[in-house]
Amino acid sequence: MKLTDLSSKVTEWFNGTGLMADIVISSRIRLARNIAGFNFLTKCSNADKLAILNRFKTVLLNLDILHDAAFFDVDNAAEIERVFMVERHLISRHMAAATGPRGVVVADNELFTAMINEEDHLRLQTLKPGLALTACWQRINEIDDAIQQKVRYAFDRRLGYLTACPTNLGTGIRVSVMLHLPALKMTEQLDKFIAACREMNLAVRGLFGEGTEALGDFFQISNQQTLGVREEDIVEKFTNEIIPAIVNYEKRAREELFGSQNELLEDKLARALALLKHARLISSNEALFLLSNLRMGVNMKRITNIPISTINELFLLTQPGHLQINQGRCLEARQRDLLRAATIRTRLN
Amino acid sequence: MKLTDLSSKVTEWFNGTGLMADIVISSRIRLARNIAGFNFLTKCSNADKLAILNRFKTVLLNLDILHDAAFFDVDNAAEIERVFMVERHLISRHMAAATGPRGVVVADNELFTAMINEEDHLRLQTLKPGLALTACWQRINEIDDAIQQKVRYAFDRRLGYLTACPTNLGTGIRVSVMLHLPALKMTEQLDKFIAACREMNLAVRGLFGEGTEALGDFFQISNQQTLGVREEDIVEKFTNEIIPAIVNYEKRAREELFGSQNELLEDKLARALALLKHARLISSNEALFLLSNLRMGVNMKRITNIPISTINELFLLTQPGHLQINQGRCLEARQRDLLRAATIRTRLN
């Protein structure tokens, strides 16, 4: 499998289906793991990194329970290929920017990834569209068990899984949900929402995880505690309490927009559609914001002639890496803005 | 004549005709005059102000050479009427905000105004569309002479006309030209242009004169020197040197936009048109900026199906005072933004 096999289609976790799909884009669980007998990566020689990489690559590519597993070498990838992989959430920005032997195994139609030599030796990740953390947990747990048949993880009976950063110690789990909250933003309730999340000890991040701001009204909510808690309890709390509560906030904000703020809503939607259909130069940030408004309009049934799949496709395909991979070459910013605008215009008109 | 007789039509000086009309909106000359035997206004009692007001009102309304002269009482005008008069440049912001007996005589289809008790006892003003300072000067000179048949101005043989502010002393003349310079702005050459004007001892002001910033790429250029110069020399220098030089700068910037910056130009024009045709809420500032881009597009023959008269009409009629006078009542900001967007949308679609 090559990256270009992926580049023209929407990743499955972003297909707009699943539970609470109008507000919950996707669910994701990742586990941080390290092999016993090797240093953590900050104290690892390149030879050791290569050994770790090859070990996990072999194990994962031969794991029966993974479907269509493929390995992508990040160290030797071209810059636009790395950007592309970040855009599809196959790898993290951190991994794209690092050096040394490292790579990612992708399987299950991009719903499973395993970054090798990111911050830990191994970062497993399962994704699903909509609110589906239980399914993510079942799948990742199953894969993790299968790997443990072949590899001895660094594990302490009292502390649990040992990780490079103490914030991941114990379960090594990160449960996160990507939410689309344009109405909370439009009604100026984001600060309140973020403060409430912090109080519940949840991290609020942007579209591309740690260190990225919220772009186009997309937010990732994730747990911060990994030590002394059961994985199932975190998953259950997210599924039954936290996410439904946030979804309700956003729904109430959308109802407010339908009512007293109707003119503001109409204006935002009309502007987004007009600019997407007519502008000649669109930056990736602006595209995110405009498509975000459009997505809300479609989900609120205010815009009826555009399928949500078209919008999701445009979200993904108009990112800089996708544009360049699909053109097969590097493009200057101005050229990308032109191509992005043309792509959107053609698709929407 | 009532204000509502004016409110639905475009002022003649803004009709988009005349010399260099694609860049020069209008030419304007004003003369500052005071009656001998009265204090300047800062030291004037209300009784004296009333006497001055009545005196000039009578003289001006009975001046044979003025066509359709009408008087508007500013002191007793409603707030939206004052706003309306400022928007049409019948009175200054300063006069709208002041107190005490004051008013304006309007004649010649709004191409002549005489503010009574603004900063000086009398401020005469003639306007023309396009570059037409010589015609403005001939007309104002003729009117000024006619007034002098009836009123003795405060005049000193050595200093010339005495004025409330020493910056107007001597000729009391202000020659100014309203320019539309969107390409200089788009190509980021405004700072250079403003610095050049300052070097030539010219004042650069916004759409509504002193103390107002440049809105929607409109700039007023005017002389600063009034003492020890002949009026005809100022008019000639503006007509033959200063304005043609600025017009050439703007033209070169437009050519640049046609060439290397063509995509940027296309984008600005497409965005302006899309937003004007589709937005549901438009503020007066945004309307100015968008209509400004549209005006350039039409003048550059990039937009062909909208007459310049429609754009000029929209510039004027979508201002807050015009919207409210035409509705016959005060409107909240949100209501104005709705009505403005609807007015523009209807006119352009």
Question: Can you describe this structure?
Answer:
The structure is a homodimer of 349-residue chains. Chain A has 349 residues and is an alpha+beta fold. Chain A has 2 domains: 4-254, Creatine Kinase, Chain A, domain 2; 262-348. Helix content of chain A is 46%, strand content 15%. Chain A is built from 13 helices and 10 strands. The first copy, chain A, has helices spanning 3-6, 46-61, 79-87, 93-97, 133-148, 182-186, 190-199, 231-258, 262-278, 284-299, 308-317, 320-327, 333-348, and strands at residues 24-33, 70-73, 103-107, 112-116, 122-129, 155-156, 160-161, 173-180, 202-205, 218-223. In chain A, the strands form 2 sheets. Chain A has an 8-stranded antiparallel β-sheet with strand order 2-3-4-5-1-8-10-9, with helices on one face. A two-stranded antiparallel ribbon of chain A has the order 6-7. In chain A, helix 3 (79-87) packs across helix 12. The two termini of chain A are 33 Å apart. Chain A binds chain B through residues 263-264, 266-267, 270-271, 273-275, 277-281, 334, 338, 341, and chain B through 263-264, 266-267, 270-271, 273-275, 277-281, 334, 338, 341.
Characteristics:
46% helix, alpha+beta, 349 residues, two-stranded antiparallel sheet, 10 strands, eight-stranded antiparallel beta sheet, Creatine Kinase, Chain A, domain 2, globular, homodimer
Given as residue ranges, the uncertain stretches of chain A (5+ residues, pLDDT < 50) are none
Strand order of the largest sheet of chain A: 2-3-4-5-1-8-10-9
Oligomer: homodimer
Largest sheet of chain A: 8 strands, antiparallel
**Number of distinct helices of chain A:** 13
User: Secondary-structure element order of chain A, as H and E?
Assistant: HEHEHHEEEHEEEHHEEHHHHHH
The tally of domains of chain A stands at 2
CATH architectural type of the largest domain in chain A: 2-Layer Sandwich
**The CATH class of the largest domain in chain A:** Alpha Beta
- The CA-CA distance between the termini of chain A, in Å, is 33 Å
Estimated radius of gyration of chain A:
21 Å
